[in-house]
Amino acid sequence: QVQLVESGGGLVESGGSLRLSCAASGFTFSGHFMDWYRQAPGKLREWVAQISITGDSTNYADSVKGRFTVSRDNARSTLYLQMDSLEPEDTAMYYCAVWYRGVDYFGQGTQVTVSS
Fold it and tell me: What is the pLDDT of residues 102-112, one digit of tens each?
């Protein structure tokens, strides 16, 4: 079955950086676009970034453009999110996701907290 396991979250000061990872299994990772989402307390889940199958095409939400970088390692079936210049507004649970056979799958999430 599809499994997505995020890691790398934590507490960081405003202006700091974190790198999130998402280990994928149960499907052909190299054959699927991958996404990052986030959800802050009391808010709806928000799409953050997407990367194409080969990684040569990426898209970002306006709120993170220029600060976050999504990448992937197909040999390791791992997705990454490099987050720089973090702001308190980036505080949220971060999830990786894949649309597979008509279903959206999400991991359990990793918490990112940015202090001001």
Answer: 999 999 999 99
